[in-house]
Write a structure and sequence with these properties.
5 helices; four-stranded antiparallel beta sheet; elongated
């Protein structure tokens, strides 16, 4: 049924189901999945974990999604060369994998690689540079 609705109609349906207007950045696919979730409450364990992570991120910074704070999708591979060595990190639904070990943050990985304090997003080139 939802796939036959125009985007404005879908947004109205979402608002009816959730009781508030959807964020302007939410696209058709997420609107449809979110409506399905709310009406059927069917999430896989991985989806529930991801949802919990997004909620935590939102609670830390409610403007994060407006600021286009990028969230990394599971399966994304980050690569950084540091002191002549290539470091590869795999994004998982519940954190990150680096050298066959699980990490909950990129900062932990960056600190292990460099031996000093780093912002993980900055180390892997994910943090936007400030305009000078």
């Amino acid at each position: 049924m939802q796939d036959k609705l125009s985007l404005p109609e879908l947004r109205q349906r979402w608002e009816k189901v959730w009781g508030k207007a959807p964020h302007k950045g939410i696209g058709r696919t997420m609107l449809e999945k979110s409506i399905t979730f709310k009406t059927q409450n069917t999430l896989t364990p991985d989806q529930q974990t991801r949802l919990n992570q997004l909620v935590k991120q939102y609670k830390r910074n409610p403007k994060c999604f407006d600021e286009e704070c990028s969230t990394l999708k599971p399966g994304t591979r980050l690569v950084r060369n540091w002191k002549g060595k290539r470091h590869s990190v795999l994004t998982k639904s519940n954190g990150f994998e680096y050298q066959e070990q699980h990490y909950t943050s990129l900062t932990q990985i960056a600190n292990d690689i460099t031996g000093s304090r780093w912002n993980g997003r900055a180390f892997f080139g994910l943090k936007k540079k400030e305009a000078s």
